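Deliverable D5.2: sample structural annotation.
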Amino acid sequence: MRRRSFALSLFVVGTSVLLPLEAVAWPGTEVFPGVTYEHRSGLQDYGSGAYAQEIYITYVDTLHPSVSFIATKPSQRGTVVSQFAATAGAAVAINTNFYASGAVPCGMAMGDGELFTDAYQGAEQGSCAHSLAVGPGNNVSFPDTWGIPNGPAPAGAHEVCTGMPTLVRAGVVVPQSEIEASAYPDHMATAQPRTAMCLHDDQHTLILAVVDGREAGVRVGMRGITLANFMKSLGCYQAVNLDGGGSSTMFIEGQTPYPGRPEGVVNRTSDGQERAVCCHFGVRIDPNPPVPDAGPEAGPDAGPDATADATADAAADVSMDGLGDSPVPLDSNVEAEAAGGAGGSAGGDASSPDGAGAGGPSWSGSEEASGCACSAPRPAPGPSAWVGLWLMAIAGWRIRRRGGVR
């Protein structure tokens, strides 16, 4: 009986690694084919205490035939997120890279295969080095681009954006000391508006998140470790922090905007209006995607399921305006800008035109920030399947050698 149980256990393990994961039923509303939008509002606790939050989340199925991605080309830099979306034909868009004067990106940036050649590197090892790259077939990876902000780009990549620090690495939340203790960026230990991206554990869902902030008692924002815990709670396997503060913006075509914001801008934007930022990342939706060739096995007798199966198978502002805000203790996730009210930064902001959160497409310089942005490569599913088959074969050999199953 023990051998039978042992063999059955190995069979279950072996077959489980061969079977595809079931699609996750994401909370929220499907706003486009393959895209679900969720808005979380009210008291929420992600390990740092319960605080009022307004969070905007988009789940994107990279395997959906209608979905493709686009990032900022050098000629599109320095626009607000909604304008980028209109120009690039994106149904969903967010801000990405930290940046300096003249909308110069910190770390690698590439849009539609066009690489920025004037990007700069952060001062410390790992700063502005955690990139997200999209290649053929919507393949998403998180290469480390430290030391090569102007290329060469990762092999096959046609869209690249970069942030810091890493929040979740290979399914594990990065230690708080690594996220918050570095002098660059020095705002990670305070509650701020945030933007982040991640690849889900299922290895095919890209998650975009924007957290509002700077309105005490209504929308607090998140410090670095809270953001990391939040992204992990979404099931993130790899996650990276992007430029935040007044830059944090999420655009979703057709959605009711936050009052006073352009159509589709769903979050508050702490400047009081959209901010012109260096770089962006968008999701394009093809309403009439081409039907993949089902191949010779899906002939006239194959039935409708064959076509369905084939379709399913195809598939810096570097200061981030926290520099002038009142400090927040490391042991509390409290409003970083209670004194500033709802209108913008209480202190100066090197990326806003007048240093007071006024918004608009004017530029000024700021020092670069940095933080560890190392990442683990995305795992390939193939070896797991081979391990399962190997275990099954060993089990069968042992049973036969000992005279069969009892």
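Annotation notes: The chain has two domains: 1-26+383-406, 33-375. The mean pLDDT is 76.
The annotation will be released with the project's public dataset once the embargo ends.
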